[in-house]
């Protein structure tokens, strides 16, 4: 979870009078990753909370998601990703729409080939800006895909390194920062107000593609809130960062939009991992 370079999503300009500050709620997820030291069980199914907008969960059956996306069931060897293939690490828009049904309606996808870390006045605690840390490690390639809709958004970034050893060292830093930054507050020059990121329930797994995923809650200007999920995956000589967010809402004037509208954390992560398995075996 990290500090996001992302404008707001949801009901649109008429509902969001303070678009500049509200938008920066969504700017935080791609820059910070943090976790609680103990991971609570992944929430399953719809959340029935008064004043809360929810949809049924997508479920967290990884095998089912993998089968639906047509990914190989054979565990692939970690690939060496060439710079020319870096964008293939990112789940294309069609896969986002089919894998996460909340992303629907007037969909816009933005592509970028250079990282942008917004300037910050202060950060507390220090050294929790993972995007800035990765950008400073001498990566050999970068790609971003940001898929935005009224129902939420999915942002993906790929950081490419010279070899697997360099990527593993960088991923160890990600894990360390994730364990050290359960709550981060950043005062951005662009926002004019502090932006707060809280994460919990981090699940750190090993395997063909070591990965971590967590719940995230971002807030700005004390009222604008976005709930979602955040994760990192080590893929050979690359690190893929993904975040999925429900539409933002005003904590005092609008019903809560629970992250459950996206499905469970494990289900969203499964969509990302299934694509990476397919990439590695193609």
From TrEMBL:
In residue numbers, the region (Disordered) covers: 38-58
Which InterPro entries would you find in this protein's record?
A: PknH-like_Extracell_sf
Q: What is this protein called?
A: PknH-like extracellular domain-containing protein
């Amino acid at each position: 979870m990290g500090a996001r370079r992302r404008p707001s999503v949801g009901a649109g300009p008429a509902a969001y009078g303070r678009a500049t500050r509200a938008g920066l709620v969504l700017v935080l997820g791609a820059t910070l990753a943090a976790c609680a030291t103990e991971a609570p069980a992944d929430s399953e199914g719809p959340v029935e909370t008064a004043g809360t907008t929810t949809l049924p969960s997508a479920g967290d059956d990884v095998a089912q998601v993998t089968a639906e996306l047509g990914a190989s069931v054979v565990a692939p060897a970690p690939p060496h990703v060439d710079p020319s293939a870096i964008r293939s690490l990112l789940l294309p828009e069609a896969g986002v729409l089919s894998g996460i049904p909340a992303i629907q309606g007037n969909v816009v996808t933005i592509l970028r080939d250079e990282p942008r870390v917004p300037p910050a006045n202060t950060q507390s605690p220090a050294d929790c800006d993972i995007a800035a840390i990765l950008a400073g490690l001498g990566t050999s390639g970068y790609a971003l895909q940001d898929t935005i809709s009224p129902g939420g958004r999915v942002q993906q970034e790929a950081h490419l390194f010279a070899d697997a050893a360099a990527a593993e060292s960088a991923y160890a830093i990600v894990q360390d920062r994730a364990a050290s930054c359960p709550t981060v507050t950043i005062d951005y020059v662009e926002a004019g107000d502090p932006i707060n990121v809280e994460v919990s329930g981090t699940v750190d797994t090993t395997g063909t593609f070591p990965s971590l995923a967590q719940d995230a809650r971002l807030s700005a200007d004390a009222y604008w809130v976005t709930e979602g999920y955040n994760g990192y995956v080590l893929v050979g000589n690359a690190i893929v960062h993904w975040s999925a967010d429900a539409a933002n809402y005003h904590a005092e004037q609008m019903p809560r939009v629970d992250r459950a509208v996206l499905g469970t954390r494990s289900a969203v992560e499964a969509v990302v991992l299934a694509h990476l398995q397919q990439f590695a075996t193609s």
